[in-house]
Amino acid sequence: MNEDSVARQVFRDFEAVLDECLTQMNRGQSLEACVAQYPALAAELEPLLRMALRVEALRQDQPPSPVALRAGRQRLLRQAALLRRTLEDQTRPTRVPWWMNLQTLMRRSMVSTALATVLLVTVLAAGTVAASARSLPGDALYPVKRASEEVRLLLTFDQQIKAQLVGKIDERRREEAQAISDRRRVAELSFRGRIERIDGMQWTVGGVAIRRSEETVVEGDLAVGTFVRVYVRSVGDGTLLAMRISVEPEIAAPQPTASPSMAEPTMTATATPTETPQPTEIPPTTRPVQPSAATATPSPTPTATGTATPSATPTEIPPTPPPPRDVKVRFSGMIETITVEAWTIGGQIVIVDENTVIDEEAAPAAVGAVARVIATRQQDGTLLGVAIIIERAAEIPEQPFEFQGLIESFGSAEWIVGGHSLLITEQTVIEGTPQKGLLAEVKAMRQSDGSLIAVRIVVRLPTEEVQFEGVIQSVGDGEWIVEGVTVRLDAETAVEGTPAVGAVAEVQGLLLPDGAVLARRIVVQSESTGTVTPTIA
């Protein structure tokens, strides 16, 4: 048996073991018991068998029709035949020892795993996959739709075709986002696309309208034309609210690369010239025909490098990923904690150092204030603050405030009591009849801007009664001056006689805290004749 036959036999043996385990599980045997029979293949068998259980559960929820099942099996056979031919074509031209072929097969275990996954998903849930084609995020069959897409990507080895498939999947995600918005459904999803419009908080990405907010986390430098991934939440009114926007490289079709056969002369050429320049070190007296012995060395060199080439096949080594780079992040939120080394803003910890700029031009930095953050997400996932801009001051919660004082003025919307301005609302309770100079007990709520909203005002009447007589010096609306004493009148004041300046009035009332008298009864007697000072002749 040659090495190609050995590799194919190993592949068929694994398929046979997988099929046997599926049969035993269908008959009621547990997954653990099946895996225990083949300990050498446990690492590859267990994830596939667990997937079989999940797919079987989906199949029971949505049983496929016989027509869909037959169609799924036909697709399976075509895909399996294509993949088998591809694997045979890749192994046939190389004449290497059988153990190297086996090593290559083991390196392609992911390929066999993907093929087994397709076998499993297609046989057990062919109808379910077909039914999930039109499902949307939040539907029961949507995970099946996403799983079938991932299997197709795993089975696509041509990078150019894979790039086209990724483009189609991206377009499908955008169509799903638009459908979720149009149907006003509540769901969370993500899609990729190019930024087409930025108008304040209204953005358009890949033809889909989204809305940013102060809580949106932005990773990277964004501008029109940038390719991004958007994580959105549909709130049920047609709006797609962006929770996170991150720059993401767009997968493009790769350029053709040189084949391994083209690389062989390069390896040979680089080996030979390193030895041949040595004759240039020979002094000028040496005859120039000496290097001819060195020119014969290239003939044995290709035979040595040619046999070593298959062991270092460049196509088997995955490309070295680029080194991770820091990502710039922008977001806004309320300051929750402030320490010397770190701030917590909007639920995210931001490391601060001597280079972090704290901008307090709009408001002071304090717990409860709203800040806009520009930070760098480092390789370990932490956020290093570049700038923290305070946008709005902390909102102080309402606080109760109680006091008492003399009523200086009162109206339907505002009172001034004891030098404090009180806002009167429909909920304000007023007990007693307000009068300038009366004592008032006030319960109010102090707002974040320092204003006072009156909750309850109790007007206290004085209890000390006074009575006096004097000349009326002035008469006003609600207030007289009698013998230098301020006399205030209200709706309960009884006035007898005609008030006039110079007339004598007898006043009975209550002594107010400010020294004025709240008149209860005023009797105007007559005009004062005045006092004549006698003179000496």
Describe this structure in words.
- This protein is α+β, with helices and mostly antiparallel strands.
- It has five domains: 3-157, no CATH class; 184-250, OB fold (Dihydrolipoamide Acetyltransferase, E2P) (Beta Barrel); 327-392, Copper binding periplasmic protein CusF (OB fold (Dihydrolipoamide Acetyltransferase, E2P), Beta Barrel), CATH 2.40.50; 399-460, Copper binding periplasmic protein CusF (OB fold (Dihydrolipoamide Acetyltransferase, E2P)), CATH 2.40.50.320; 465-527, OB fold (Dihydrolipoamide Acetyltransferase, E2P) (Beta Barrel).
- Helices cover 32% and strands 31% of the residues.
- The chain is built from eleven helices and 24 strands.
- It has helices spanning 3-26, 31-36, 42-61, 66-91, 98-107, 109-131, 142-155, 159-182, 260-271, 292-295, 300-308; strands at residues 186-199, 202-205, 208-211, 217-219, 227-235, 240-247, 327-338, 342-345, 348-351, 357-359, 370-377, 383-392, 399-410, 414-417, 420-423, 429-431, 439-446, 452-460, 465-475, 479-482, 485-488, 494-496, 503-511, 517-527.
- The strands form three sheets. It has a five-stranded mixed barrel.
- A hairpin with a 3-residue loop joins strand 19 and strand 20.
- It starts with a helix and ends in a 10-residue tail after the last strand.
Helical stretch count?
A: 11
Poorly predicted tracts of residues: 252-309, 528-537
How many distinct beta strands?
Answer: 24
Report how far the terminal alpha carbons are from each other: 164 Å
Percentage of residues in DSSP E strands = 25-35%
User: How many separate structural domains?
Assistant: 5
Shape: elongated
Largest sheet descriptor: 5 strands, mixed, barrel
**Widest beta sheet: strand line-up:** 7-8-9-12-11
Q: What is the mean predicted local confidence, pLDDT?
A: 76
Structural class: alpha+beta
- Helix fraction, binned, reads 25-40%
Radius of gyration: 46 Å
